[in-house]
Amino acid sequence: MAKKDVKAAAPAQHGYEFGGPIVVSAFSVLLPLICYAFAFLCNDVSGCPAPTLLHPTRFSLDSLKKDVNWQGISHLINAQSVIATLGWYFLSLVLNAVLPAQEVQGVKLRSGGRLKYRFNAFSSAMVIMGGCAVGTLLYGADFPVWTFIWNNYVQILTCNILISYFLATWTYVRSFSVKPNDPSHRELAQGGHTGNILYDWFIGRELNPRITLPFFGTIDVKAWMELRPGMLGWILLDLAFIAHQYRTHAVVTDSILIVTFSQALYVLDALYMEPAILTTIDIINDGFGFMLAFGDLAWLPFVYSLQARYLAVHPVVLGPLGCLGVFAVQGTGYYIFRAANNEKNRFRNNPDDPKVKHLTYIETEAGSRLLTSGWWGTARHINYLGDWFMSWAYCLPTGIAGYIIKHNHPAHSASELDSIVGASIPGPGGLLMGRQPVGPAVVQGEARGWGMLVTYFFMLYFAILLVHRERRDEEKCRRKYGKDWERYCKEVPWRIVPGVY
């Protein structure tokens, strides 16, 4: 879809989303607790899930605490993790300031102005990944970055949760300094100033909060948080999990490599195509509040990396056919996602581009063009289908998940390791042998299948997220285009999955 350069419409009336104040208040407490639940209940101490949960009739809080190695609330954070997490954010700020960058103008705001953005997330990622590669060459799996992440996983999670609460509160309070016709084009988000404190704090009251810092320049808080600390942090978590698998089991399996490759491809593609975020609903429509702050900094890196964390403790070997199947799903999803988004961006920026000139469209009274052929004529949100297919590739490598840890049966022999991972080592799926396993035996036993509640959670969650986002997109477009949108829906009847939904 491409927009003509027309004056922005006045803000429309905007009702509550996500169930209103009561539901979003519950989300602001429950979502961090879910992150902690995954961290503790799928662990390297007793199993995934914790064995106590497999016997509800014999459940006791004391046995659960023992299973998860609970040491009290004071152990949820430590000084080292605070320093390391703040150092991570500081490093991202420094690289953003010193590396060459592409300057891009955002879409037209309701005030009529456009904000300027400075993008170099991909080159920043290359510098950081290069440094980690050098460290790994020098120290191997014992590179301090990898060991620190594994040993302080919960504490780093806590730091990012606290930062998200701080940012949501800071931007909410600061939003009250936004004035009409602000010369720097500060605006309130249409759905974020209902007057209900908790709801506006969660949704985000200011549309594009910015801060100017000495040396670092102007930072667009929402755009920066969208792709900087959390997205690349997700891949660093995955790499730390690979290192732990090798330290513990003396093997790096094809399954954990596929999961990490699939997720790294998604992240690096997003960083490389950084200007594309300027046309997303997050940037155009949503304010920056707890929803985006927590989602970017805590939920995304720590929940999306659950599969690699699982495989770090319980290695799974897929073999050539298994790998081929996962890559087929991943490739199909990526092709749909990228081809659809590229088609939309080309048409928006240059409708006369030979690659999209043949596409048919509806021209609305608002001046926008809604595609009715090509990818976007197949379904109104066809890119979400590709997104969801890619999420399968994150989960399938964990197989029929679940494990129990046997501390009194250390797995030191090749035959014992073979019984754990389900294939001969070394072999096509077991790579990088060269040190003795040092961890306890990990067996599936009665936990088999129950671990899928953790490792396949992302597929279910992501489907719900995409459907909810699609519904929000539909409502926004219906308000904006009116009868033109109804006409468009008749020409393109399917929402995400052609012929199904």
What does this structure look like?
Helix 4 runs antiparallel to helix 10. Helices cover 55% and strands 9% of the residues. The strands form 5 sheets. Strands 1-9-8 form a 3-stranded antiparallel β-sheet. The protein has a 3-stranded antiparallel β-sheet with strand order 2-10-12. Strands 3-4 form a two-stranded antiparallel sheet. It has 501 residues and is mainly α. The protein has one domain. A hairpin with a 4-residue loop joins strand 8 and strand 9. The two termini are 21 Å apart.
Average per-residue pLDDT, rounded, comes to 88
User: What is the radius of gyration computed over CA atoms, rounded to a whole number of angstroms?
Assistant: 24 Å
State the end-to-end CA separation: 21 Å
Roughly what percent helix? 40-55%
Q: What is the count of DSSP helices, taking H or I runs of 4+ residues?
A: 20
**Physical arrangement of strands within the biggest beta sheet:** 1-9-8
Any idea how many domains?
1
- SSE-based structural type: mainly alpha
**Percent of residues in β-strands:** 5-15%
Largest sheet descriptor: 3 strands, antiparallel
Q: What is the approximate shape?
A: globular
Give the low-confidence spans.
1-13, 411-428
Based on DSSP secondary structure assignment, what is the total number of beta strands? 12
